[in-house]
Amino acid sequence: MSSISKALFFIAVLYFSSLSASAENENPGLVMNYYKDSCPQAEEIIKEQVQLLYKRHKNTAFSWLRNIFHDCFVESCDASLLLDSTRRMLSEKETDRSFGMRNFRYIETIKEALERECPGVVSCSDILVLSARDGIVALGGPYIPLKTGRRDGRKSRADILEQHLPDHNESMSVVLERFANIGIDTPGVVALLGSHSVGRTHCVKLVHRLYPEVDPSLNPDHVQHMLHKCPDPIPDPKAVQYVRNDRGTPMKLDNYYYRNILDNKGLLIVDHQLATDKRTKPFVKKMAKSQDYFFKEFAKAITILSENNPLTGTKGEIRKQCNLANKMH
């Protein structure tokens, strides 16, 4: 190769290297502390708002945890869950599967605080993920370092929700398959369902285990409490009738859930299956014995969930309001 050819080759290599480097800079994907330059206070503002809201409204912490599951599981972690319905599009929030979800307006409270500090910088999808992280801590769970840099989707995924989101009445095979589709293994499934350690289950979700006959697999001591809380085979939709998922520590994310389901006190079919299926029972037993093991697997699973197919770089947008795509303004 002549010296001129070598020089041209070298220039070509430099040119393509710079192209690939600029492409990487344009779309760096998710990284730790993505807003360190564009909005250095972003994560601290979210944390402060989550703590403030938790002091005023304890149930916000359950909402943050539920949000990350319902949003990130359905194809992409892009805050599509937060969009309102339009004339052309049904919101995910208004589907039957989102029954009982609330506190979406407080995501807007966090967004407004961020907009005052750094207008148009922090995405609603990152707010959703980081509020879940800080909500988990408020409930006594582990602090989970999560990456940021997501951008917001422009459309609801209500039409494909059922294809992705596992239901509490489905077989354990279907549940495991749905989680495996986004990279979460069996111990991760068992750990994520440990979220049922906190919050409550509405009677409408569990009356089929009580009426017309009581499910014989339920612990008889627990049945009396369930019947007291859910006295009607067809609950009044306007009445807020529910059973606490864990009567002992209802506001704490801990491993009591696993002890309860091994004692046949699981409220939902999926809880019962988790404690009896040969694929999941060994991990239930291990988590019932060790909260550290539960937290380790829980943190791993939340991390995978939060990184499911995000929009980054130039994809999507940074919404001005979390309930509306920008074109609606």
Name some characteristics of this structure.
2 domains, biological rhythms, mainly alpha, Peroxidase, Peroxidase, domain 1, 2 strands, Peroxidase, domain 2
Tell me what you see in this structure.
Ca(2+) 2 binds at residues 246, 249, 254. Residues 1-23 form the signal peptide. The protein is mainly alpha-helical and 329 residues long. It folds into two domains: 41-163, Peroxidase, domain 1; 172-304, Peroxidase, domain 2. The protein is 46% helix and 2% strand. It contains 13 helices and two strands; from the N terminus they run ααααααααβαβαααα. The chain has a two-stranded antiparallel ribbon. Mean pLDDT is 90; it is low at 11-27.
Which range does the strand content fall in? under 5%
How is the CATH topology of the largest domain named? Peroxidase, domain 2
Low-confidence stretches: 11-27
From the N-terminal CA to the C-terminal CA, the straight-line distance is 60 Å
Derived structural class:
mainly alpha
Largest sheet: 2 strands, antiparallel
Question: What is the gyration radius calculated from CA atoms?
Answer: 23 Å
Shape: globular
Give a brief rundown of this model.
By secondary structure, this protein is an all-alpha fold. The protein is globular, with a radius of gyration of 23 Å. It is 46% helix and 2% strand.
Q: Layout of SSEs?
A:
Elements (H helix, E strand, L loop, with lengths): L2 H24 L15 H15 L3 H13 L31 H14 L6 H15 L22 H4 L7 H9 L5 H7 L7 E3 L17 H10 L12 E3 L11 H7 L6 H8 L4 H9 L1 H16 L23
Helix pairs in contact: 2-4, 2-5, 3-5, 8-13, 10-12, 12-13
GO molecular function, one term: heme binding
EC number: 1.11.1.7
Protein name: Peroxidase
